[in-house]
């Protein structure tokens, strides 16, 4: 019998029609469910919220990785905060110059579920360059100084056990953990609904105070709220447009389903309402 997953906001809800529930487990951190759907394949939810699906996970993972990798001239060491599903690591191992990838994922049960139901991405952890640490991300970061070329914050959301990964201390710790020309990319949420605007501005304000270069880019992800998602790009040196090298990236001939170098440029061209939110967040902050 078909049933629906309902995703709620303060003022409404959206649904995904599914065939059956495949798995459910409660970890020390969250409730993890896997469903089989008609349109999106397998869907994984955390505490009732959709995290990703078979059909659109590639959008998030490609944008989180290929945008910074096409800007930084040589990334050798990467830190992924979260990322227990393996999607970000899968995209990173396509780059031969990357020598080390540290993945900090505290929830071992989450990784086990992904290994069982989404093995194509989790297989990236078999690459010899990848090391997995089951630790708190912020605590791990505090011990690192000028070590990484790229940090990708692939944690779930700014609530619950991941709340510390969206604080000013976290972004300051990222700054100190990066080398002198390092980049951090992080999920910035969806600012479409009024209820999310405050969190969106707060996050940008925190990062803007820590990094000399701070931009936001966007992607269309169908299972995200309103189908619209944004990412943050913060850098000590490289600008995501001025230091972008499309010809060099295209020569790699990497297979992607969403990211292109033309899309890269367009992703930083934001709707006016998003621009206004960012301007409001930056107001009163001197650089």
Structure at a glance:
The chain is of the alpha/beta class. Helices cover 30% and strands 30% of the residues. The chain has helices at residues 57-69, 87-92, 108-117, 119-122, 137-142, 168-177, 194-208, 246-250, 261-267, 272-282; strands spanning 3-8, 13-26, 31-37, 42-46, 49-53, 77-82, 100-104, 130-133, 148-154, 178-189, 213-220, 228-235.
3D architecture notes:
- The protein is α/β, with parallel strands linked by helices.
- It is built from 10 helices and 12 strands.
- Strands 8-7-6-9-10-12-11 form a 7-stranded mixed beta sheet, sandwiched between helices. A 5-stranded antiparallel beta sheet has the order 1-2-3-4-5, with helices on one face.
- Helix 7 (194-208) crosses helix 10.
- The longest helix has 15 residues, at 194-208.
- The chain is globular.
Question: Structural class, from secondary structure content?
Answer: alpha/beta
Largest sheet: 7 strands, mixed
3D shape: globular
- List unreliable stretches of 5+ residues: 158-165
N-to-C terminal Cα separation, in Å? 58 Å
SSE blueprint:
Layout lengths: L2 E6 L4 E14 L4 E7 L4 E5 L2 E5 L3 H13 L7 E6 L4 H6 L7 E5 L3 H10 L1 H4 L7 E4 L3 H6 L5 E7 L13 H10 E12 L4 H15 L4 E8 L7 E8 L10 H5 L10 H7 L4 H11 L5
Parallel strand pairs: 6-7, 6-9, 7-8, 9-10
Antiparallel strand pairs: 1-2, 2-3, 3-4, 4-5, 10-12, 11-12
């Amino acid at each position: 019998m078909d049933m629906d997953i309902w995703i709620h906001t303060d003022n409404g809800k959206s649904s995904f029609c599914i065939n059956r529930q495949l798995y459910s487990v409660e970890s020390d951190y969250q409730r993890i469910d896997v469903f089989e759907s008609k349109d999106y394949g397998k869907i994984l939810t955390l505490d009732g919220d959709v995290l990703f699906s078979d059909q659109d996970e590639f959008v998030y993972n490609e944008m989180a990785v290929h945008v910074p990798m096409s800007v930084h001239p040589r990334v050798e060491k990467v830190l992924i905060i979260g990322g227990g599903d393996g999607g970000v690591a899968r995209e990173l191992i396509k780059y031969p110059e990357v020598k080390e990838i540290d993945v900090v994922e505290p929830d071992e049960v989450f990784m086990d579920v992904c290994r069982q139901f989404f093995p194509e991405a989790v297989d990236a952890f078999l690459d010899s360059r990848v090391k997995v640490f089951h630790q708190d991300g912020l605590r791990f970061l505090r011990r690192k100084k000028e070590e990484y070329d790229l940090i990708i914050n692939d944690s779930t959301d700014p609530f619950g056990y991941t709340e510390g990964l969206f604080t000013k201390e976290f972004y300051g710790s990222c700054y100190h953990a990066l080398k002198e020309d390092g980049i951090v990319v992080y999920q910035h949420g969806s600012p479409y609904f009024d209820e999310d605007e405050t969190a969106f501005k707060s996050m940008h304000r925190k990062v803007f105070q820590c990094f000399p270069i701070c931009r936001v880019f966007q992607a269309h992800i169908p299972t995200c709220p309103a189908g619209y998602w944004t990412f943050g790009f913060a850098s000590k040196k490289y600008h995501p447009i001025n230091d972008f090298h499309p010809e060099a990236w295209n020569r790699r001939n990497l297979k992607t389903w969403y990211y292109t170098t033309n899309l890269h440029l367009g992703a930083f061209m934001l709707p006016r309402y998003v621009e206004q939110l960012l301007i409001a967040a930056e107001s009163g902050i001197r650089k």
